[in-house]
Amino acid sequence: MFIDSHCHINLSGIAQRLPDVLEQMQINSVTHALCVSIDLDTFPSVLKIAHAYPHIFASVGVHPDYEHAREPDVDELISLAQDPKVIAIGETGLDYYQLKGRTLDVMAWQQPRFRTHIQAARATGKPLIIHMRSAAKDTLRIMQEEGAAEVGGVMHCFTETWDVAQAALTQNFFISLSGIVTFKNAIKIQEIAKKVPLERLLLETDSPYLAPIPYRGKPNEPAYVSHIGRFVAQLRGIEAEQLGAATSANFFRLFRIRSK
Ligand code: NI
């Protein structure tokens, strides 16, 4: 009934208990998951899981936070994205959270790396998975400058304002809600969760990080997207089944997946 549009089940800690993680998905009616790449060194482990299980998909990309990660160029991303299980480019984007008042030149790699990913996405026709933290203005500007709207994609783990959400929606992007929406102090995101058009909404765990209530502080896993889905359905005053069907259809439409 639900799909986890963003998880990292290839990472150490959760990868060791993969059979259990997949069984819990089944028990909780979580039908598919997208295992998202964070760097080129661990990309093979993402691909391996996606190849082993028909209901797990992969992306390819290098996270903006990793200064010392091997830098991809457009051609390498295009080539790695040729694998049929790779349905998206990312995660990419901008993250200025660590700047804390310093000037941007201490993170000079972020913007060129982000542009590289958008160019690869346009070349392959595959949508983008965008990580945006404390950097909404520059993220939206670079998306615009590089023509990200042509392929679209998802603003993952969305925690920004409604204005930012609307700007992303205008650029042909979906809004994905993580377990943060279930936190008691997440009033602002809960309001956004009510307003995003149902046909542009996705759900994710970002596991093994960010476990939703009632698992907050514990390791997260894709099965818990069912808690997020039920919570968001209640916020919007609709049945969980309706939200699950809509967000699943959105996932297949955005990532151009024909068969379920
Ligand atoms: Ni992530």
The top level CATH class name:
Alpha Beta
In the residues, how many domains can be counted?
A: 1
Q: Using the 3D structure, state the CATH architecture.
A: Alpha-Beta Barrel
What general form does the structure show? globular
Taking the alpha carbons of the first and last residues, their distance comes to 12 Å
Beta-strand residue percentage: 15-25%
What ligands can be seen in this structure?
nickel (II) ion
Note the run of SSEs as H and E. Answer: EHEHEHEHEHEHEHEHH
Structural class: alpha/beta
The count of β-strands is: 8
Count of alpha and pi helical runs = 9
Provide the residue-averaged pLDDT: 96
What's the gyration radius in Å?
17 Å
Q: In which order are the strands of the major sheet placed? A: 1-2-3-4-5-6-7-8
CATH superfamily: Metal-dependent hydrolases
CATH fold-level name: TIM Barrel
Contiguous runs where pLDDT drops below 50 for at least 5 residues: none
For the biggest sheet, the summary is: 8 strands, parallel
User: Helix amount, in percent?
Assistant: 25-40%
